[in-house]
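Protocol step 4 of 5: obtain the predicted structure for the target chain.
Materials: sequence only (see below). No template structures provided, no constraints applied. The aim of this step is simply to have a reference model before the mutagenesis design in step 5. Sequence pasted as it appears in the construct record:
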Amino acid sequence: MQTENTQTQQRIHYRSAAIGPVNIFYREAGDPAKPTLLLLHGFPSSSHMFRNLINWLSADFHLIAPDYPGFGHSSAPAPEGFEYSFAHLSEVMEAFIDSLGLTEVSLYMQDYGGPIGFRIATRRPKLVKALVIQNANAFMEGLGPDVQAIGAMAAAGGVDGLDEAINYMMSVEGIKEQYVFGTADPDAVSPDSYLMDHLFFENPGIRAIQKILFDNYSSNFPLYPEWQQYLREYQPPALITWGANDKIFHGPGALAYKTVLPDAEVHLFDGGHFLLEEYGLEVAGLIRTFFQKLG
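Step 4 output (structure tokens):
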């Protein structure tokens, strides 16, 4: 017997949009007349990480989940002719938003989705209605032990150790660890999630692209004050759902948002970096309630 929510789920469409030299793959579901939620994925994932959330929310929202260039099903031009930086990815995603004719969106940002989404929001504050932030960092307090360890190696010039750490993070074992570490119930994490990520990383040239982006990640830290000032000045409604045991962006990063967004709604879960794998239904319920309050 189907539940009422299942009966009202909307069909997901799998589309692509030409943005300059790249084709951006995206998943879309729901009525465009309803609030648009743009789902910005993290590393090492793609729009695939939102597959279940799209189903659960499609009756109430217009959902769009793109893959960045070099991720998932989107094209991955060679680095010699395409700039792989967080600044440029944010410009591509902004052009993607405009290509769809979207004039108001709420951003769901996870991991890499943070530096991409915050760049867009600071440039186009009137475009952004609300924020849903999930293990996407904007404060030094949020840097977990893995980030600190990698930062220490980079500062010490430990090139071999740093390269080994990055290679491990892109291996099937390292990707799986990012999904299951800190979970309360590892058996709730579908193997499809980390095996799909690994499959994409096996495509020619993808690991080299990811290393370029990994090296560029430090460009985000100097922008934290700018992003915090955006939050402080514009006070976008914000729902923060966070896996507190994440060793990449740990729990204090969620609580730090309250220093600039005193009205933000914060929920810390006994989970890890990819919270939706374990608590997707709970997060979907929080999102519905949050937007019902916004009206």
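Step 4 remarks: Residues 275-294 form the longest helix (20 residues). The chain has a mean pLDDT of 94.
Proceed to step 5.
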